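Data deposition worksheet. Section B asks for the primary sequence of the deposited chain exactly as it was used as input, without tags or linkers unless they were present during the calculation. Section C holds the resulting structure in token form. Section D is free text for depositor observations; keep each observation to a single sentence. Incomplete worksheets are returned to the depositor.
Section A, Depositor: J.P.
Section B:
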Amino acid sequence: MSTVAVIGAGIGGLSAALALAADGHQVTVLERTKQLEALGVGLLLTPNAVQVLDRLGVDLSGEGQTLSRLEVWGRSGRLISTINLAYLAQANGPSYGIARPRLHALLSAALPPSVELVLGAPVASAQQSSDQTVTLTWPGVDRAFDTVVVADGLRSLLGGPGQLRYSGNTCWRGIVPLNVGSVAVESWGEGNRVGVVPIGGGQVYYYLVRVSPAGAEPPSSIAQLRALFAGHGGTAGRLVDSLEEMPPVHSNLFELERPFWGQARILLLGDAAHAMTPNQGQGAAMAIEDAFSLAAALRPGVDGALERYRANRHRRVRRVQLTSRRIGMVANLRGPGVAWARETVMRLAPSTAATMAMQRLIQSGPLTALAAPPLPSTRLPPTH
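Section C:
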């Protein structure tokens, strides 16, 4: 087997290290920070990701919060869409809300002793050599590898020519105590959205998304922020009212215009390859799937691995990326008449439509052998 360097020790990088080590590769993980820590606050993991994690030896049983439904509410205060996660779990396994640091810790703990983890190693350059190796340079070190996996995020050092695209949204994220049971909620307001995902222990991961011009000055106080998200009812309204301090994470939401998978013996995964807007909650899931597919692409050897990897991943990832982009565009529509029309169309869709769309997404993942038969259009239990 080959020597493989994984640049970045986030969710995608650690998943790749696990998958590659299981196949017998000599894996070195290079992390620029001096401590192994997770960026971000929370995640929603649907069965397509959970199935891969299970294959990688990461058991989520008893972790976070098993989710029963994902509900979307409109500015009118009416339920406009539901994904019945409990029903999907019968054939596909559960979905979880989980704190990102906890998932990161589980991945770290699962790494076998054979994986070399190098902290404080910001990679400065990568040179593909005539002897079919890639030489990486970080402070005080030049080292050659057979293959390099790049998992260092949206603004990747070794990313390709893909252009960043501003989604038109800015987002605040955090974790607070709030008892909401097992139902994740997203509420669509006037140019804003509030998401609440239970993660266990009486806590929720929340996100506040607002339409905002690039470079606009964000609110400076929690009172100003709450005012921007006033008017939501139910769980979302309770969340906004409960906030006592500014969320710990704030960022403008960018994505890559289109995926870029790498060149020669340098392969990209996760946000480095295909950063997308978080409108389907599939960003981390796609990185985890990438790790599984990338390891499979390397099994016949390094030669041709990039082509095999691209062929396995591009169509699926591109579909998820574009669907997330479209959802964001619809959610960003403003004006009372526009919002009313949007909600009316969504409510008139068959009650099983969102659940079946999620089923199709799960079944088209890399573990299709574990997928269930298509959902029937009837026989779904009540959604609320």
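Section D:
The radius of gyration is 21 Å.
The chain has eleven helices and 19 strands.
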